[in-house]
Specification:
Number of strands of chain B: 10
Distance between the termini of chain B: 43 Å
Strand content of chain B: 15-25%
Largest sheet of chain A: 8 strands, mixed
Structural class of chain A: alpha/beta
Shape of chain A: globular
Low-confidence stretches of chain A: none
Structural class of chain B: alpha/beta
Oligomer: heterodimer
Number of strands of chain A: 8
Number of domains of chain A: 1
Largest interface: A-B, 48 and 48 residues
CATH architecture of chain A: 3-Layer(aba) Sandwich
CATH superfamily of the largest domain in chain B: Pyruvate-ferredoxin oxidoreductase, PFOR, domain III
Strand order of the largest sheet of chain A: 2-1-3-4-6-5-7-8
Order of helices and strands of chain B: EHEEEEHEHHHHEHEEHEH
CATH architecture of the largest domain in chain B: 3-Layer(aba) Sandwich
Helix content of chain B: 25-40%
Low-confidence stretches of chain B: 123-128
């Protein structure tokens, strides 16, 4: 993020201390996705309507309980951007007919997991961007179908054990580069965030909120249940994802990608991997040197490309 | 037919325990149903699993209302109405509670005369919590009295094959040790009578007045109604702030609490909302001043 950006959030102490998201949700203790949502909601404010595709967060608002201050719409996995189109159109019609005042307008926010964002819902998202839909898409990426027991998804990292990839090599595929796919549509804004970097997250949500058009945000969301770690480690593991370079924090705007946090000296990826049960087979009963080297090499290649681009 | 109900918290392996017991029955030639109750399988939340086993076709479906054996992996669930531990318990129902306290204490506390056993699962806290489920499955196998050691062993091998060497063998040890421990009570659990649809007694018909549409329809008239859900019941460890050491940085514990359960008061001191804190302990790990510590929920409950 460039220095001249005008932001309310320069330091941790600038972050809001009142919490908009209600307590009492059925998310797992230590949920990294809920952490990102509460931080984002504090910045988005009450005038937000959520359109939620099926996934973990479907359980956020189970009648008659909701943690939100406003409306929430539930769609099937593939259809959240279509739902957002409907809500946006309805709001626009109400505005045009003078039935609501401009200051009563709502920000339409799609909320989905990685199963919908990287997989089933990709086609409808592509269409929404193509139509120039004015909305924010917030993906909580826990790298698998966590709500149903952590089956592999197109966001699962290479080598991770999931309930559908239990062999000694873990998941054979590679995490899809959703940021690049979304950016290739040339929307108003794309960003990656993580709740363990709350100032970076707040600034990106603030920026997205101030823009018009399609704005898409991916929040890596450490998942104690699916990734198999103690819930108290959620923040530590998120920090390691950034420190090792596994989760680059960046944004796309006006045709340009900028990295907002470049780890000065990247920690070895195994510091991140060894803390999670889903990668335990890479360390026990003996180290899978080939796989560890492959994962490290991919991260190194990525950052070599970044350094070449940035000079 | 045997009707067995497991109560535990998400993460304690209740679903797996029900599968192990179900497989063990199956090895003995029984027809078996085993299933967790879908919908609430969150780590720390009360969870349920059911096993039915019979020598002939099982026609019953759904949750078990009249259990022959009730197994409780976490004794803090017993007094919790939402966990429904004592639901449908009759004088012949056997209760097996994983607890450090004696059966006499529990019998007195619950004021029940029926058979009640405790199992001191040494893994009741910490990293070895995984073993509670397998130990209880082993104990249950002995209590029903119709499952051989070999069948139990095969069932554990079958259900935990994916966990691999060391974890599998330590779980197996726990299951077999609990099986041995229950030897004096072998066969304590007896089969409940078969229920026939013809004998089903309908509950008394209750006339409910038809509500007006605006009262009956799905409209929520306030924001953040989820505060009515007391997720504090999920907690086994309680974070406690030492206000002498808190340096009122105010944002760290509150910002990193996924559940919005830490508020900051007017003096910039954080306050934990124990009605909703799920006990993830991120605040304990993240507090820069190390001013937050974790204490067992049960010790806090003592006056």
């Amino acid at each position: 993020m460039s220095d001249e950006t005008i932001t309310l959030y320069k330091h941790m102490k600038d972050l809001p201390s009142n919490r908009l998201l209600g307590t009492g949700t059925p998310m797992c203790a230590g949920c990294g996705g809920l952490l990102a949502i509460h931080q984002a909601y504090d910045i988005l404010g009450e005038k937000t309507v959520f359109v939620n595709a099926a996934g973990c967060m479907t359980l956020l608002a189970v009648y008659p309980y909701t943690p939100f201050r406003g409306s929430w719409l539930y769609t099937s996995m593939a259809s959240a951007p279509a739902g957002a189109q409907g809500v946006r159109d309805a709001l626009d019609i109400q505005l045009a007919r003078g039935r609501i005042k401009p200051e009563e307008d709502l920000q339409v926010v799609v909320l989905t997991g990685d199963g919908a964002a990287y997989g089933m819902g990709m086609s409808s998202t592509s269409s929404a961007i193509e139509h120039g839909l004015d909305f924010i898409y917030l993906c909580y990426d826990n790298e698998g179908y966590a709500n149903t027991g952590q089956q592999s998804s197109p966001a699962t990292p290479h080598g991770a054990r999931t309930s559908t990839s239990t062999g000694p090599q873990g998941f054979g595929g590679h995490k899809k580069d959703l940021f690049a796919i979304w950016a290739a549509h040339r929307p108003a804004y794309v960003a990656t965030v993580i709740a363990t970097e709350p100032v970076d997250l707040a600034r990106k949500i603030e920026k997205a909120k101030g823009l018009k058009g399609s704005r898409l945000i991916i929040a890596l969301s450490p998942c104690p249940t699916g990734w198999d770690f103690d819930p108290r480690e959620t923040v530590e593991i998120g920090r390691l994802a950034v420190k090792t370079g596994m989760w680059p924090l960046k944004e796309y705007e006006n045709g340009k990608v900028t990295h907002t946090r470049v780890p000065p000296k990247r920690a070895p990826v195994e510091e991140y991997l060894e803390k999670q049960g889903r990668f335990a087979h890479l360390f026990h009963p003996r180290r899978n040197e080939a796989m560890l080297a492959e994962i490290q090499a991919r991260v190194d290649d990525y950052w070599a490309g970044v350094e070449a681009d940035h000079g | 037919m045997y009707r067995i109900r497991f109560h535990g918290r998400g993460g304690q392996g209740m679903k797996t325990a029900s599968r192990i017991l179900g497989s063990a029955f199956f090895q003995q030639g029984y027809e078996v149903q085993d299933a967790p109750r879908y919908g609430a399988e969150r780590r720390g939340a009360p969870v349920f699993a059911y096993v039915r086993a019979a020598r002939r076709t099982i026609q019953e479906r759904g949750i078990i209302l009249e259990p022959d054996l009730v197994i409780v992996a976490d004794d803090s669930l017993v007094p919790m109405p939402a966990a429904g531990v004592l639901q449908g318990v009759t004088p012949r129902t056997v209760l097996l509670i994983s607890s450090g306290e004696t059966p006499e204490t529990w019998r007195h506390r619950l004021n029940i005369a029926g058979p009640l056993l405790t199992l001191q699962a040494e893994a009741a806290a910490g990293a070895e919590q995984h073993f509670v489920g397998t130990a209880l499955a082993g104990a249950a196998a002995r209590l029903v009295g119709v499952i051989t050691l070999l069948a139990l062993e095969q069932a554990v091998q079958l259900e935990l094959a994916g966990l691999g060497g060391e974890t599998l063998s330590s779980n197996l040890d726990q299951a077999l040790a609990a099986y041995e421990l229950m030897a004096p009570q072998a066969g304590l659990v007896s089969e409940g009578e078969a229920l026939a649809a013809a004998a089903y007694q309908r509950p008394d018909w209750v006339e409910l007045p038809l509500d007006e549409a605006d009262a009956a329809a799905a409209a929520i008239h306030a924001g953040a109604t989820s505060v009515e859900v007391r997720t504090g019941l999920w907690r086994t460890l309680r974070p406690v702030i030492d206000y002498q050491r808190c340096n009122r940085c105010w944002w760290v514990c509150s910002e990193f609490c996924p559940d919005s359960a830490i508020r900051v008061n007017a003096e910039h001191f954080p306050e934990i909302d124990y009605d909703h804190c799920k006990g993830c302990l991120i605040c304990v790990a993240q507090c820069p001043a190390h001013a937050i510590s974790a204490i067992p929920e049960s010790s806090e409950a003592q006056p």
